[in-house]
Write a structure and sequence with these properties.
This protein is α+β, with helices and mostly antiparallel strands and about 230 residues long. It has one domain: tt1808, chain A (Alpha-Beta Complex), CATH 3.90.1570. The chain has five helices and 13 strands. It has a seven-stranded antiparallel beta sheet, sandwiched between helices. The protein is globular and about 60 Å long.
Amino acid sequence: MATVAQPETGYSVQEFAPPDQGQRVLLNGMRWRDYVAMGDLLRDRPALRLTYDRGRLEILTTSSTHERLKKWLGRFVETIAEEYGVAILPGGSMTFQREDLDRGFEPDECFWIANEARMRGRADYDPTRDPPPDLLLEIEVTRSALDRMALFARLGVPEVWRFDGAAMHVHRLQPSGGYADVKNSLAFPAIRVADIVPHLAFDPNQDYLSTVRAFRAWVHEQLPHG
């Protein structure tokens, strides 16, 4: 990692070596208005993820593995909701910004579930009016240099599923303001989330839709019968 001073802009750049899981650049001393302007400039670059935390802006590129797992896990959440008859509103990787907290982020995937009816039909998101997503998905084969979990907690996200490429972790927001590790989802309590992991394994003998169908069959087996 190298740090390069940028006197003309007033912030320093920490350049991270480009690991296989993605490239990262961390800008220190970034003002809120500059973060917002950069986000607007890069709005149509979906392979980039911006995280802003009180003057520190991380720009991260995501790997093909990251994007593939993100797509699969998001589809799996939708499949669980379908099988259990739970209404959800997907938010994708939309940008969440709270100027009053001096923080902003883009999740890998997000969903409103408990607050789906409240958010249904909204054409925009207003952080002064609307609740944060009920569930965030984090694929951590592309690792952030910032503490995104602390940022999610500060913005009041009730639940985060975090997959590091080997294990799935479920984090539930506590009254104290931090997350506790739990085995079952608040949104889908009948599903043991760790059991999803084998379905995320890449199989050269099975195409994407076959994987989804196999996962749907597994979810159906978890449903209470009789």
